[in-house]
Amino acid sequence: MKLLITGGCGFIGANFIRYLLNKYADYQIVNLDKLTYAGNLENLAGLEEESGGRYTFVRGDIRDATLIAELLGREIDVVVNFAAESHVDRSIEDASVFVRTNVEGTQVLLEAARKSGVGLYVQISTDEVYGSLGPSGAFSEKTPLDPRSPYSASKAAADLLVQAYAHTYGLPILITRCSNNYGPFQFPEKLIPLMLTNALEGLPLPVYGDGLNVRDWIYVGDHCRGVDLIIHHGKKGEVYNLGGASELTNLDLVGALLRELAIQKGHQPGYYDGLIKFVTDRLGHDRRYAMDFTKIQTELGWTPGYTLAQGMKETVAWYLQNEAWWRRIKTGEYLDYYQRMYAGR
Ligand code: NAD
Ligand code: DAU
After folding, report:
1. 325 to each of 40, 45, 196, 321, how far by Cα in Å?
2. How remote is the CA of residue 295 from the centroid of ligand 2, in Å?
3. 227 CB less than 6 Å from ligand 1?
4. Which CATH architecture has domain 2-185+219-244+288-306?
């Protein structure tokens, strides 16, 4: 099988490419990535050689119709679109690039996929398209879309375009909607790597609002395994939810993370707790997400394999072992971003 994977130099895309190359000895992958602030060639360093030429990197924009047409001319069987602007806080600061990449970029990919007659187009979407929950209940695939941030609105728009291409042109598609991922290679603007790396640097740990917003956390390897299953066995035209069955308030999550970090660094359990700082809330902050993933469980036999405790242990260990990786990121653009986002909060 030959796959065009977009956004493969980001967090989940890089984990997915590594997963596929390890699992399937004969698969070939073309990774198209623009290398925005979130794209990092280091995440896939050495793979061209290690994979014996089965992995190729192309730098480019998913909005570049000429380039996409050329790539799809390389006998691609499946397109998997991970490429996106992915951070909610950045979308609140400036929504325009979110519309350009997440909406227009998806449309360019769909149009090229339609013209080339590709076998399958897979859109990597998010639970955030469903909106926000009260204290009980969970999102199912039938929950109406109700996005509330510029990021989630752009992802929902993309999902609707994907479904429109399926309905109008008969494009074979699948959409995956997953909850909050964590694990190796996650960019330190997101909650878990931000807390970990700030704690290691002795910096304040900014918890938004009252810290009682709830997220469902899934280890990135479980997400990759689910997307792989869906590509091979999902029913064309369908949406599949994925979740980690690990719902926690942000405060409880940060507490558990800091305890694990303290253990691995040989400190007392409460060693980092004094760094926690409650800061001004995110605008329009969604209160709670929770996923009902019964459909993929019953149809494809998928469940998350990692408990939060196992996933956290591996993640903390990875960030401790890969200090050079995150320290290189936390320079330049990142420092400007951090200053803009957190100063005076
Ligand atoms: P990320 O920000 O780490 O990576 C995004 C990648 O896309 C980067 O490598 C970037 O360079 C690339 N990119 C951005 N704009 C591009 C463009 N115009 N053309 C080509 N490449 C471009 O994101 P992530 O956390 O790995 O998320 C990947 C996908 O999964 C996104 O679509 C996101 O919406 C979705 N998702 C993420 C999560 C999560 O918890 N991180 C959960 C559910 C779904
Ligand atoms: O739910 C899936 C989504 O998860 C993905 O679609 C997004 O791409 C991904 O970024 C993520 O969105 P969130 O906004 O939930 O993730 P983030 O890590 O930014 O924040 C998680 C929670 O932590 C959220 O309630 C906001 C809070 N938070 C975040 C940061 C960065 C803080 O309290 N402090 C912070 O500094």
Report:
1. 10, 12, 13, 9
2. 25
3. no
4. 3-Layer(aba) Sandwich (3.40)
